[in-house]
């Protein structure tokens, strides 16, 4: 019951953030494609505002009824979204951690994060973003990446 309440609370957050998106701030999007034959797919949207970076995401194919098992990170300019080094950093970068996912009984996931300025790297300083499974190697290394996508910043 507690997990259901947490998930329901998170579901309502994107609607509250929608008024910020309408202000015309910088935005970016990354479609997440499966990595390591995970079957996980999704989409992550970034909105840079004066209050910080708003990150929202939806995904399918996650393990059911989880909170905190999956995390999202961003990676430096030069990182790639495919191949054997998908969503791996090429150099250290501050502000890589974005947030954690919650999934429902069907494995549909939701990510909602409002980070104050400088908590997450600003738009334009990262090229890729991932969904990682923390139960695989503690979430570290390319084997923990279950989905990855190239970040496209809107002009």
Key phrases:
disordered N terminus; globular; 155 residues; 9 strands
Topology:
Blueprint (H helix, E strand, L loop, with lengths): L1 H20 L5 E8 L6 E9 L2 E9 L6 E10 L20 E7 L5 E7 L10 E8 L11 E6 L1 E2 L2
Antiparallel strand pairs: 1-2, 1-8, 1-9, 2-3, 3-6, 4-5, 4-7, 5-6, 7-8
How would you summarize what this structure contains?
The protein has one helix at residues 2-21; strands spanning 27-34, 41-49, 52-60, 67-76, 97-103, 109-115, 126-133, 145-150, 152-153. By secondary structure, the chain is mainly beta.
Binned strand content: 35-45%
> What number of domains?
1
The unreliable regions are: 1-23
Radius of gyration: 15 Å
**Neighbour order of strands in the largest sheet:** 1-2-3-6-5-4-7-8
Which class of secondary structure composition applies to the elements? mainly beta
CATH hierarchy, class? Mainly Beta
**CATH topology category name:** Immunoglobulin-like
**N-end to C-end Cα span:** 43 Å
**What is the H-and-E element order?**
HEEEEEEEEE
3D structure, described in words:
With 155 residues, this protein is mostly beta strands. The protein has a single domain, classed as Superoxide dismutase, copper/zinc binding domain (Immunoglobulin-like), CATH 2.60.40.200. It has one helix spanning 2-21; strands spanning 27-34, 41-49, 52-60, 67-76, 97-103, 109-115, 126-133, 145-150, 152-153. It has an eight-stranded antiparallel beta barrel with strand order 1-2-3-6-5-4-7-8. Strand 5 (97-103) and strand 6 form a beta hairpin. The radius of gyration is 15 Å and the shape is globular. Residues 1-23 have low confidence and may be disordered.
């Amino acid at each position: 019951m507690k997990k259901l309440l947490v998930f329901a609370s998170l579901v309502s957050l994107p609607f509250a953030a929608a008024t910020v998106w309408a202000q015309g701030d910088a935005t970016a999007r990354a479609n997440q494609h499966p990595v390591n034959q995970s079957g996980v797919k999704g989409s992550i949207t970034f909105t840079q505002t004066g209050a910080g970076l708003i990150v929202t995401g939806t995904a399918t194919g996650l393990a059911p009824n989880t909170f905190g098992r999956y995390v999202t990170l961003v990676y430096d300019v030069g990182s790639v979204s495919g191949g054997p080094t998908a969503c791996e950093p090429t150099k250290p970068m501050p502000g890589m951690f974005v947030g954690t996912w919650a999934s429902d009984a069907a494995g549909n996931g939701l990510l909602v994060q409002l980070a104050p300025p400088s908590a997450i790297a600003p738009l334009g300083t990262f090229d890729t973003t991932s969904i990682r499974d923390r139960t695989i190697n503690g979430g570290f290394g390319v084997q923990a990446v279950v989905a990855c996508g190239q970040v496209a910043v809107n002009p």
